[in-house]
Amino acid sequence: MKHLRLKAAALAAALALLCAGCGAPASSAPASSGGASSAPASPAPSSAPAQETGTLGEYRAMWVSYLEWESFDFSSEAAFAADADEMMQNCADMGLNVVIAQVRPFADALYPSELFPWSHLCTGAQGQDPGFDPLAILVESAHSHGLELEAWLNPYRVRLNATRPAGELAADNPAVLHPEWVKEVDGGLYLDPSLPAVRQLITDGVLEILRNYDVDGIHFDDYFYPTTDPSFDEAEYAASSSGLSLEEWRRENVNQLMRQVYAAVKAEKPAVRFGVSPQGNMDNNYNSQYSDVSLWMAEGGYVDYVLPQLYWGYGYTTGSGSTRYAFENISAEWAALERAPSVALYFGLGAYRIGDGDGGNYAEAQSGWQTGHTLADMVEDGRALGADGYVLYRYDFLYKNGAWADLAAQEVENLKTANAQ
């Protein structure tokens, strides 16, 4: 598909789409798409200093997930440092300035913690000390290459399924120490967002990182409530006597966490960013995960940045024929949302789509991701829309892409060119 350059007319059309599309049912969209929904009133957050951006300029970042750690060498400090150095060098060479490293994926840690056990990713067994501090190495390596390092945390998830994390949970995992804090959903385990003790644990975990490491940001991903099933927390909801609907109550539980963590970050280290990466589908965020992202964007006191995952190609079309989530449309829709002066907007771009495509119901669903410059085009269009930067998901699909190595290399070269402008 020929690349679409987004002009002012496209933005105006997106504004009209946004107004007309509010409240569209989540079932009409793919699992990670966008669209604002009206939200109940929420208590005004306390004032906090705006983020200090320093000389970073455009935010150009790479996500490095726990899946990347599965191929890192944890056998020794030197081996891990060598892998980290190679990764940071590649990111710096591309012209990026931030690495977002997942260091707490399953209520466990890639650093020594008094609150969470060692991650199974380090040794194969959760709770086992690898003999060195991976996060310290990542921070040092990033900074030595002129990059900033954000600590990526999954706030609620303890177990994704029977195999992740591998093996048994460690005896000092919070879910083992406090089983009353945990809910099970489809074989996964999650901390209960309604509990003040859980919010305090998450906040304390953020402060532990800030006090022990020179990180430049704290990053939450898009996993909030894991289900819409009323039975998930019916006892807690009944006991709350809040007067809110179940949906409003759940959203306020998440809002409380975001306000609490933001305030803690700003009190401890005002220059550190706190941001979130929600799904690109605002309907899903609001109605399925109970994360009121439009509120967080519009008001100060929740986040320093919002980073929606816009993982669809140009012209993307759903099975029902909707093009709302085509990159040129959904990016403009997010850019048109009300945004407080202290809140930045970055676009998450799907490097994992390279070669394979996005599965949409349109002719270019695969070929549109085989141009070698799709990601660079998206970067340019994000700039035209006024986005403050972008993040690539994820490192291995650009630098260890065995299936589409040539295409990935072309994407890297074109991103370098885009970043040099």
Walk me through what this model shows.
The chain has one domain (8-14, 51-420): Alpha-Beta Barrel (TIM Barrel). Residues 1-29 and 32-54 have low confidence and may be disordered. The protein is built from 15 helices and twelve strands. The strands form two sheets. The chain has an eight-stranded parallel barrel, surrounded by four helices. Helices cover 37% and strands 13% of the residues. The longest helix has 23 residues, at 246-268. Strand 11 (344-350), helix 13 and strand 12 form a beta-alpha-beta unit. Residues 1-28 form the signal peptide. InterPro entries: Divisome_Glycosyl_Hydrolase, GH, GHL10. Residues 60-355 form the Glycosyl hydrolase-like domain. This is Family 10 glycosylhydrolase.
Radius of gyration: 21 Å
Count, helices:
15
Given helix and strand content, the structural type is alpha/beta
Beta-strand content bin:
5-15%
Uncertain runs are 1-29, 32-54
Molecular shape:
globular
| Estimated helix fraction | 25-40%
Q: From the coordinates shown, what is the CATH architecture? A: Alpha-Beta Barrel
Output the strand order for the largest sheet.
1-2-3-7-8-9-11-12
As for the CATH topology, it is TIM Barrel
* Overall mean confidence score, pLDDT: 89
How far apart the termini lie comes to: 24 Å
String of helices and strands: HEHHEHHEEHEEHEHHEHHEEHEHEHH
Number of domains: 1
- In total, the number of strands is 12
CATH domain class name: Alpha Beta
CATH superfamily: Glycosidases
What characterizes the major β-sheet?
8 strands, parallel, barrel
